[in-house]
Amino acid sequence: MRILVVEDEAKVARALQEGLEREEYTVVVARTGEEGFYVVSAEEFDLVILDLMLPGRDGLQVLSTLRKRGLMTPVLILTARDAIEDRVQGLDKGADDYLVKPFAFPELLARIRALLRRGRTQQVARLQLADLEMDLLVRRVRRGGKDVELTPREFELLEYLLRHKEQVVSREMLAREVWRETSRATPLDNVIDVHMARLRRKIDERFDCKLIHTIRGVGYVLQEEQ
Amino acid sequence: MRRLWPRHVRSRMTLWYVLVLGVLLLVYAGVASSYLFYSLREQLDHNLLEDVERVEGLIENTPDGMVALKSVHHGEDELNTQRFVEVWSPNGILLYRSPTLRGRTLGGPPPPNPEGTAEPSPSTVRLADGTRVRMAASIPSVDGRRVFLRVAHSEQGLWQEMEEIVSVLLLVLPPALVLAGLSGFALARKALAPIDVMARKAERISAERLNERLPIENPEDELGHLAQAFNATLARLEAAFDQLRRFTADASHELRTPLTAIRSVGEVALQTPKSATEYRDVIGSMLEETDRLTRLVDSLLTLSRADAGHIHVQRTDISLLGLAQEASSLVEVLAEEKRQRISVEGDPTLIVSGDRLILRQALINLIDNAIKYSQGGAEIFVRVAAGKDTQLIVEVVDQGPGVSQEHQSRIFDRFYRVDSARSREWGGAGLGLAIARWAVEVHGGQIRLQSVEGQGSTFRIALPSTTTPEKNGYKEAST
User: Fold this and answer.
1) Residues B428, B429, B434, B435, CA torsion sign
2) A217 to B283: CB separation less than 8 angstroms, yes or no
3) Which of B385, B339, B334 is nearest to B364 (CA)?
4) Is the N end or the C end of chain A the one with fewer CB atoms within 10 Å?
5) Which of B280, B293, B298, B414 to mutate to test the interface with A (most CBs of A within 10 A)?
6) Do B283 and A179 touch (CB under 8 A)?
7) Do residue A189 and residue B291 have CB atoms under 8 angstroms apart?
8) In Å, how far is B348's CA from the nearest CA of chain A?
């Protein structure tokens, strides 16, 4: 999978490149709007990550020229401006998704996966990791063959973690996807931590192999111990 | 046309003044001269009618079947030059025509059926050469013979007099207007001079010198009012600037705290080599601070958008109790961790028209605060009730330490914290209550704190139950 990153801020560009390459993507970095435009016209990419505030030609211009040329490569916009009008403008010009700076890297990865997967979502009835099983139809969770009683919120939380197993999820992602909180101003971090602690008690406490792990300062990941 | 219109108020005032005065003077002159004209003509008519009677007495038959006027004493000669007489026989034969007429007629043969001896009413007649005369007719009988008599007096004197009067009036008008214009201009300039002074003073008051005020000479007159209004605006501006300055300073200060943490954690970590796990820990701790920074910046952005009026309030009808329950259930786990109980009670039928997310935010912030500041095992009440004057009341009551009087007035201020060390430990930046206040006020409501130190706090939100146009000019998108 080839990803073009158009980002003028050197540190951010390097971090993006390193992080994405670790996830086995091939990354090309363009440092200006012109360069990005030139590269995207010359080569083929599976995804473009586009900073909006660029020297020379700004991101929105790059995007609209791109779409006018008929290139349907998915575009993920990065920007420091998060007013609703800005988002609408970006999406109107043909962006596929939108991420506000500062963003959590796990969230960027999740968005990239979603964009690349687009149109290929499979319906699943069961989710599983090691000896943890979740039956989505009868809403039952078992660990090591024993039923685990979960509240609806805990069930949703675990479902999200299972769907993103072995991927780090940030609190912000949980707030938006599990709590369906659109506003970043609503402080849910403590609430999420408490729920996570309870879930952990129910899932992991009686087992030696822990599945829920905290990545300090980033979020949580559901995986068998490394 | 636009260019001809004077630029200065004083010139415009003068121009209007002169225009109005000119029109008034013209109307006055018109009314006065027509009054004069009518009274002069009445005088003329009066003399004419008298003269008709006199002429009637002077008519005498002559042997040739005509008539003649007896000449009286010569003193009347003067009058005779202004008097025109014509006598006709009833069958249309000219019996006499005064020499002053010089062959002109006063109206030809009489009508075939002249009405009796009715009082002759004078009328204006224009002779063949254009001379205007005032004419009266009568049908006297001269020695038993009925004749048709016309007597006319020239209007020349009347018109001469009118001409003189009108020309005097018109001659006086322009200098009067010029004089009025000049004095009007001088007066306007004198009256407006203080405004010039005020404008010059106001120009010198810049953003850096907002504490200056205009002098008020007489608070009762119009200029005094203007100066007062201007000063009041300045005071509001100054307050707004002060608030902005304080806000910026406070915000920078708040940003500094996590920045300091990031910096020192990083610097200290680099001092000695560490294991991978230790480095992970350091980076994690730095990321936690970054999170705090992000949250702070998000809150600041929310507030600054609110200040700029960029937040659209999307009103819908919301059950207030339902909203309170929703807010409380969202943060309930935090209370459970501290073995606290949140009771939400009240009238489920109360409906408020407001923006669900914004109002919920306010409630979440209040309940979150109550949980934070209450002891373990305490009880928190959220009460919804109808207040007086169609107000809706939401109260969040805690059994926490309360807030002392000195802090109560400022507790809704941005970044204000009663105990900064303790609050920061809980990760607050002192913006929660400021955001709650904004959320309530944007709905036209009020938020108040009632608290006695050591006996808990009651945050009381009063919202108007009906949709009211909100103040502060926040934009509103109706749904």
Assistant:
1) negative
2) yes
3) B334
4) C
5) B298
6) no
7) yes
8) 24
Whether B298 and A186 have beta carbons less than 8 Å apart is answered as no
The C-alpha R_g of chain A, in whole angstroms, comes to 20
Contacts of B337 in chain A (CB under 8 A): 194
As separate numbers, helices (DSSP H) first and strands (DSSP E) second, chain B gives: 10, 17
Contact A6, A54 (CB under 8 A): yes
Neighbours of A108 (CB within 10 A): 19
Between β-strands A26-30 and A2-6, what pairing exists: parallel, antiparallel or unpaired? Answer: parallel
Token pair of B408, please? 């109560």
> What backbone torsions phi and psi does residue B393 show, to the nearest 5 degrees?
-115, 135
Which residues on B lie below 8 Å from A175 (Cβ)? none
Name residue B409's amino acid.
Answer: S
Exposure string of B243-279, with b = 16+ CB inside 10 Å and e = fewer, is eeeebeebbeebbebbeebbeebeeebeeeeeeeeee
CB contact (8 A) between residue B284 and residue A217: yes
Per-residue pLDDT at B468: 46
B288/A82 CB distance under 8 A: no
Q: Is B250 helix (H, G, I), strand (E, B) or coil?
A: helix
How does pLDDT run along chain A (226 residues), one tens digit per residue?
Answer: 899 999 988 899 999 999 999 999 999 999 888 888 888 888 888 999 998 888 777 788 888 888 888 888 899 998 887 777 777 777 888 888 888 888 888 889 988 988 888 656 567 788 888 889 999 888 999 998 889 999 999 999 999 999 888 888 988 889 888 888 876 666 788 899 999 999 999 998 888 888 999 988 889 999 987 6
Residues of B contacting chain A (CB within 8 angstroms): 280-281, 283-288, 290-291, 294-295, 298-299, 301-302, 305, 310, 312, 330-331, 333-334, 336-337, 357, 361, 364, 368, 427, 432, 435
Whole-number Å distance between alpha carbons of B334 and B410: 27
What is the rounded distance in angstroms from the CA atom of residue B157 to the CA atom of residue B465? 85
Which pLDDT tens digit goes with each residue over B401-410? 888 888 888 8
Residue A217 contacts B where some CB pair is shorter than 8 Å: yes
pLDDT at A65: 82
Residue A49 main-chain phi, psi, to 5 deg = -105, 120
Give the distance from CA A44 to its chain's centroid.
Answer: 23
Q: Residue B384 in contact with residue B397, Cβ under 8 Å? A: no
User: Shortest CA distance to B101 belongs to which of B73, B143, B135, B53?
Assistant: B135
Instruction: Classify burial at B355, counting beta carbons within 10 Å of its beta carbon; exposed 0-12, middle 13-18, buried 19 or more.
Output: buried
With beta carbons less than 8 A apart as the criterion, state whether B72 and B58 touch: yes
A10 touches chain B (CB under 8 A): no
ipTM of predicted complex: 0.77
Structure tokens at B465: 């139950």
- Counting Cα atoms < 13 Å in the Cβ hemisphere of B395 gives 17
* DSSP code of residue B463: E
Please, is A170 exposed, middle or buried when counting C-beta atoms within 10 Å of its C-beta (0-12, 13-18, 19+)?
A: buried
For chain A, percent of residues with pLDDT exceeding 90: 32
* Model confidence at B79: pLDDT above 80: no
**Quick one: closest CA in A to B305, which residue?**
A83
Q: In this structure, which amino acid lies at residue B83? A: R
Read off the pTM: 0.64
